[in-house]
Amino acid sequence: MVSSKKTEKIAFFLLFLATLLIVVPVGLIVVIIIKKGIGAISWQFLSDIPRQGMRAGGILPAIVGTIYLVLGALIFALPIGLLAAIYLSEYAKDNYLTRIIKLAIVNLAGVPSVVYGLFGLAIFVVFFKFGTSILSGSLTLGIMILPVIITTSREALESVPYSFREASLSLGASKWQTIRHIVLPNAIPGILTGAILGIGRAAGETAPILFTVAAFYLPQMPKSIFDQAMALPYHLYVISTQVPNVDEKIRYGTALVLLFLVLFMNLIAIIIRYQFRKQKKW
Amino acid sequence: MVRTKINIKNLNIWFGDVPALKNLSIKIYVNEILSVIGPSNSGKTTFLRMLNRLNELETNFKMSGQVEFDNQDIMKMNVELLRKKIGMVFALPLPLPLSIFDNIAYGARMHGVKNKKKLQQIVEQALQKAYLWDEVKDRLDVSAFKLSGGQQQRLCIARTLAVEPEVILFDEPCSGLDPISTAKVEEAMLKLKKDYAMVLVTNNVKQAARVGDSTAFFLSGELIEVDKTDKMFTVPSDKRTDDYIRGKFG
Questions:
Q1: Choice between A188 and A279, residue whose per-residue pLDDT is larger
Q2: Residue B73: in which H helix or E strand, if any?
Q3: Fold of A41-279
């Protein structure tokens, strides 16, 4: 018979170990990328176009392309996702149709990203004739992050206590007024969490942009949403596998920029979320 | 001559297949407090939530019979207007996650009052009627959750008053309060009587006796008896009422 003190220690050790195992890879990834990539970072690297067959110069077009794509995906997915979440959590009755919609959202989240790429190619590039363009890429990425945004927004809305809704309704406020003035303001931090997750995915995925927007080599800034653009993840793929003799420094430098771009965009969302949490009155 | 404000005829309510209220007929008069007592699960709260149509939020709600408010069938009235006229104070203090001022002004704002001066006036009047003004007048912009339980409950009363209702429903308003806060809430209720019709659902039989003009006794979804409070508490006509009041069950 093991004493309860001993089992306590074992349990603590296992739980702690599991937590540590999560931290270690994250830490290692960041450390290795910084170590190998920091040497490439310079003003020229961040502000110049790629030169000498992408073996020198900078990666500005890819940075700009990724920013455009992420913003485009958010502009498309955040409002639609939020409205759908409001419908599902506040208005939808629990019936057959609602269950099918919820099932569809779960399934959408499980679709491999390359399938989104093919879907985007078929629908946006070919059918709607948007061509390979920022618009097609943003829409494809937007659809990819919709399930995340809907699910987190719904959870955020449902976590607002039901009693607040009753109190508001009992004062003669309409259902929409209640949602608009009581439910939504208190759900915004949770909704922003969804946006943060969406940003990370949209910025990092390669497959969905492969057929819909990404240019192999395009040493200029996109002029409109109907232009092709370079994007960091695809650029990273290209210089790592398609172009021979690219300095390792440049590859890791590109990864580093992508990492910090995502962190930076997340930071903005986190700051906004913090501001809203501070206002929270309960 | 007392005027009937709400007239309930043969009301039945079910949630799914479970009956919650059976064949209820009762009247609520202006300038009176009707106390509703009974053990838990006797339909008291369902009865109260029928009057401002909060029961409808349950998807399996079914009803038959009629509830008339000023001779109008409430099921045919605009529900927002009905809830404006029939205010409700819940069992637990339920401030909205807003400042004290915004809590009181909320109802008025939702009904279209935008003028700042007017809102200030509404807030002050409502807080005074609920005997809370002196305690909060210097900190109207702090969160309502910073108030004590008793203050929060009076805030909820003030918030209800601010939309100028004609009837106020109290759902066990003192169940979470200490005796002093309870006394203050009861005092507020008694003073409000001159302007409103009120219904008080309570688990506290003594409270029913203290503030109710009439008292109704519910048991298992049925109205056992309703009468003047003095009579109910001295010579009830039903033995079950007598037993409940004396604390033999419930």
A1: A188
A2: strand B72-73
A3: MetI-like fold (1.10.3720)
Interface A-B, measured as beta-carbon pairs within 8 A, has a size of 72
Beginning with the edge strand found earlier in the chain, give each strand of the sheet holding B61-69 in spatial order.
Answer: B18-29, B4-15, B61-69, B72-73
Min Cα distance B128 → chain A (Å) is 19
The CATH number of B4-245 is 3.40.50.300
In 3D, which of A214, A274, A212, A256 has the Cα closest to residue A46? A256
Name the nearest CA neighbour of A146 among A109, A187, A115, A117: A109
> Does the pTM exceed 0.90?
no
Is the per-residue pLDDT at A202 higher than 70?
Answer: yes
pLDDT tens, position by position, B162-206: 999 999 999 988 887 888 888 888 988 888 888 899 999 998 888
Which residues contact residue B18 at a Cβ distance below 8 angstroms, ignoring those fewer than 6 apart? Answer: none
Q: Does the structure show a pLDDT above 90 at B86?
A: yes
* Residue A199 contacts residue A269 (beta carbons within 8 Å): yes
- b/e map of A55-70 (b: 16 or more CB within 10 Å)? eebbbbbbbbbbbbbb
**Extended strands (E) in A23-67:** 50-51, 56-57
Asked whether the beta carbons of B66 and B9 are under 8 A apart, the reply is: yes
Does the predicted interface ipTM exceed a cut of 0.90? no
- B42 and chain A in contact, CB less than 8 A: no
Instruction: Check if the beta carbon of residue A124 is closer than 8 Å to that of residue A108.
Output: no
Residues A151, A132: Cα–Cα separation, whole Å? 29
**B94 close to A (CB below 8 A):** yes
Domain extents for chain A?
A: 4-39, 41-279
User: Which pLDDT belongs to residue A266?
Assistant: 87
Cβ separation A282–B90 shorter than 8 A: no
